[in-house]
Write a structure and sequence with these properties.
repeat; eight-stranded antiparallel β-sheet; single chain; ACR2/9/10_N; Alpha-Beta Plaits; Biosynthetic Threonine Deaminase, domain 3; 27% helix; ACT-like_dom_sf
Amino acid sequence: MGMPSDDVVLIQRGKSSEEPSIVTVNCPDKTGLGCDICRIILDFGLFITKGDISTDGIWCYVVLWVVPHSSSLIVKWSSLKNRLQSECPSCLNSFYLNEQSTSSSSSPVYLLKFFCVDRRGLLNDVTQVLCELELAIQRVKVTTTPDGRVMDLFFISDNRVLLHTKERQNETLEQLHDVLGQSCITCELLLAGPEYERHQGITSLSPAIAEELFRCELSDKEIHSQALSPDMTKLKQATVMVDNSLSPAHTLLQIHCADHKGLLYDIMRTLKDFNIQISYGRFLPTTKGYRDLDLFIQQKDGKKMLDLEKQSALRSRLKVEMLHPLRVIIVNRGPDTGLLVANPVELSGKGRPLVFYDVTLALKTLGICIFSAEIGRHSASDREWEVYSFLLDESCSRFQLSNMVARNQIVDRVRRTLMGW
């Protein structure tokens, strides 16, 4: 009954850096497994070039062709295999998963606190170390003092679930000391206490800003801080077709849209939140920047999706997620300039990987210093969002942050980095 655990996930490495590696997952099925797999692939900095998925509701077979988003990325393939295996239900329980699914062990939250001399790009350098260590950032609170020092609070969890060990803690602190160098004044790692709950929310969202950040449609007006640049208008050409005529037991969902980093994750998490089961799916390679997907789906009750209102709701949500899965705006915060980035949280409570890293990388590339930063959750439009708030330091920036053209350039660069363009 089932396969040995070593055969649940197989990775066939590409013969060259240009040739895709093939990731095969063959295990008992569970609700949202495709979403969980795509999230891990995204978390490891990999891009899915094409894929196939099939399931009978009991057993699932997934084949994905993947390449690194960056040529400089060193992929830890053994860690990827372990993470994927941890998301797969136990083979011993393969016939008992209709109503229950096996979840991987969750790591407790730890507080990484350090005080050091500030410098340009510091946040991104620290975030890169944490990502390489497979430490997930849950919350952040960063404050710069008038004398040029910074107090950073990172609430993190360990994807390897080993941070309770002294060896893992020492490894983390040593690598942080390496990147901070002599600028580090203090650095400590401890189990998070009540302060974690105090940092759950985001404090800088007025009703007007929240309405702009979480609105469903983007504006084309240049004065709007989310305005699409001309070569990004192809995002609005996404189409979602629902067809019930080709299969007696399944609804065919056909998607045509512009490609972006994490596209398959965005589609899979939407279907997971709608309790949609993919019986068979094919993700075709990108053609001229566009991606086509054919998905044969069923509702949770095993029936086709015939209700027109449900079809309309699913189409609308998918289009929104493909149009702008990440919201990026610049706002005034008194005399200062703030950057806000938001992404929807899965109903399971899981957020999107690497957002904080990508935003700090974009700002570092632009030469913009970050005076303060925080990550929190906010509820709007009947959904929970993860919000990243940055206060930008104009004193060390080549941009005049009050200038609308400069602001649009910053928004465009941040969004492009997040979308993988």
